[in-house]
Amino acid sequence: MTPGLTRREREITDINETLKILDKSKIVHIGLVDGDEPYVVPMNYGYTYENDALTLYLHGATEGKKLDLMRANPKVFFSIECDVEPFSGQVACQYGTSYSSVMGKGFAEILEAPEDKMEGLTLFMKTQTGIDFEFNERLVSAVSVIKINVTSFTAKHRPKPINA
Ligand SMILES: Cc1cc2nc3c(=O)[nH]c(=O)nc-3n(C[C@H](O)[C@H](O)[C@H](O)COP(=O)(O)OP(=O)(O)OC[C@H]3O[C@@H](n4cnc5c(N)ncnc54)[C@H](O)[C@@H]3O)c2cc1C
């Protein structure tokens, strides 16, 4: 069991179920450290899960606030969800939202080598589209590619109540 995770009946411990969430949800919210304030930015992502290690790949412009913050402090927290479906009931407390989600933390690495960026973009596009795109040096020079080395993560599922 994951220490600190509430409502344990909803915890996902099967990695294959977790990977299904990562396949399905295309958007990640990346939490960064801005001095003594949080900064959260929504982004698309790609991922790999190899040798029990989860890695996320992001891409974007070559400058901006999130890149400045990652350079200053590479610590990252992330949140991903899918199958978000509101449900209703007879009284206010029976309303809610069913969902599947993954959260975790890690370290951001802004990739510099063209071959690393090409690989990262291919993995990004694979998650986003299911297609194995290839990139060349010219294409990757115009974007930043960020690798998130995930150090820990948890997954959770809230099912829709039977009577909802
Ligand atoms: C569903 C979704 C998917 C996205 N996917 C990607 C992606 O894959 N790659 C990518 O680079 N960007 C993506 N974006 C845009 C992303 O959220 C940021 O706007 C962008 O990356 C610039 O971030 P930055 O920190 O460099 O901000 P900057 O351009 O430096 O802007 C700084 C300021 O602008 C404001 N700001 C920045 N982003 C947003 C925002 N999304 N909404 C409201 N205010 C904002 C904030 O106040 C911030 O302080 C996505 C946005 C959404 C909603």
Task: Describe it.
With 164 residues, the chain is α+β, with helices and mostly antiparallel strands. It has a single domain, classed as Roll (Pnp Oxidase, Chain A). 24% of the residues lie in helices and 45% in strands. The protein has 4 helices and 8 strands; from the N terminus they run E-H-E-E-E-E-H-E-E-H-H-E. Strands 1, 2, 3, 4, 5, 6, 7 and 8 form an 8-stranded antiparallel beta sheet that branches. Strand 2 and strand 3 (37-44) form a beta hairpin. The protein is globular and about 60 Å long. The protein starts with 10 loop residues before the first strand and ends in a 6-residue tail after the last strand. The mean pLDDT is 94.
User: What is the makeup of the main sheet?
Assistant: 8 strands, antiparallel
For the record, what CATH class applies? Mainly Beta
By CATH, the superfamily comes out as: Electron Transport, Fmn-binding Protein, Chain A
Q: Tell me the distance between the termini.
A: 28 Å
Q: Helical content, roughly?
A: 10-25%
Q: How many discrete structural domains?
A: 1
Bound ligands, named by name, code or SMILES: flavin-adenine dinucleotide
Low-pLDDT segments, ≥5 res: none
Order of helices and strands: EHEEEEHEEHHE
What is the overall silhouette?
Answer: globular
Structural class: alpha+beta
- Predict the CATH topology: Pnp Oxidase, Chain A
Radius of gyration: 18 Å
